[in-house]
Amino acid sequence: MIIILPMHRLRVPAYYLLITFLLLTSCDSTPTPPPQTSLVVYRYDPPAFIEYSTDFQPVHEIPFAIPPSCGLYNTFPATMGEILLIELSCPNGQTVLFLDTTTGSSTQPVTDSDAHFLAWARDGESAYLRVDSLGNPRVILANVGGGEDQVPITEYTYDLAVNPVNDDFTFTFSRGLGYGSELWLAKRGGNVVELLFADQFNYVSFARFSPDGRRIAFIKIPDTTTPFTVGELWVMNADGSNAHNLADVDAGHGYAANWSPDGKRIAYVIRENLEDESANLSSAELISNIFIVNVETSALKRVTQFVNGHAETPVWSADGNTLIFTAVVDGSMTVFIADVATAGVGLPEPTGLKFPVEMTPLMNESTCCPAWLRR
């Protein structure tokens, strides 16, 4: 026989309930271990991706030969996981591959047209690509495991960035030379959009959310036919408010600016030989270096001081103490490590660290395209 007691007979002291709740929740409160990070760079000869530990010791080698007639454009690690997206420059246009850094196997998500990488989705399981540029241009979301979905935004999108704290993303497009560009925010997979920023004189590019998703950094590139120019690094709130210029930057070479993990600093590339008009037309003539800017104070700190070459996009280590980047010096391409743990950004020069900071090559062989994997 089942006996149902009146509710007033089931009273339990409040502290008993609290103790029971704490005991139950403590059973499921095992802390999630932090992601494990490792650095991957490409070595040209013999051709392979080399994986390094956080203290820059080689731990794994993944043989990978660049297909004939193609060149390695760049690499882009998934936001989480073992997949590295490889973008190649080939005779028929850009091509992307998904490389499993654990097994060494690769797949080509788009085989019937060109494909250009835009951004990884927040879950790291799919990537936004712009495909078929000369035929039926469109933006798709390609899944690492196969399959794709079309993204309902304009086919003229050339830049896209995903908010790291939700699934919103920005996309940027131009209506043509002389019309500047527009930066929009997309929600619900692109079905709801709103204008964040427009500039009729510049191309807005390389938009990047801060780690907390509250701000966006982007680069203004002059709307001109000159291939290599000088642009501006801007920052604004994620809703488009308080947009302001932080620093002059290199433009036209495809070098993005990157937030530090704590969101207080941005590392970027600046062109230095402004008086050399030949560098406006040829990247081989460019002299550029890496700087760090304090987002709140706009104080600058030099990281490199090349006088016979150029630095490319820097990437931060997870602890924010190191910048890793490719540099082309005297015609030789090398990945460098720069110690910026005590760079003193925002401090007067006599108090802060003297520039440039300590910098060493990762290896003696020709290398490029550093990327941090988070597993």
Number of strands: 29
Task: Measure the end-to-end span.
Answer: 55 Å
Rg over alpha carbons: 24 Å
Task: Give me the number of helical elements.
Answer: 1
> What is the residue-mean pLDDT, rounded to a whole number?
87
Proportion in β-strands: over 45%
Order of helices and strands: HEEEEEEEEEEEEEEEEEEEEEEEEEEEEE
Shape: globular
- The percentage helix is under 10%
Q: What's the story with the biggest beta sheet?
A: 5 strands, antiparallel
Structural class: mainly beta
**Low-pLDDT windows of residues:** 1-28, 345-354
List keywords for this structure.
single chain; 375 residues; mainly beta; 5-stranded antiparallel sheet; 1 helix; 29 strands
Structure description:
The protein is mainly β and 375 residues long. Helices cover 3% and strands 46% of the residues. It contains one helix and 29 strands. It has one helix at 14-26, and strands spanning 37-43, 48-52, 58-63, 71-77, 83-90, 93-100, 106-107, 115-120, 126-131, 138-143, 148-150, 157-162, 169-173, 181-187, 192-199, 202-209, 215-222, 229-237, 244-251, 258-259, 265-271, 288-294, 300-302, 309-311, 315-316, 322-329, 332-339, 359-361, 367-374. The strands form seven sheets. Strands 24, 25, 26, 27 and 28 form a five-stranded antiparallel sheet that branches. A four-stranded antiparallel sheet has the order 3-2-1-29, with no helix packed on it. β5 (83-90) and β6 form a beta hairpin. The longest helix is centred in the first third of the chain and has 13 residues, at 14-26. The model is unreliable at 1-28 and 345-354 (pLDDT under 50).
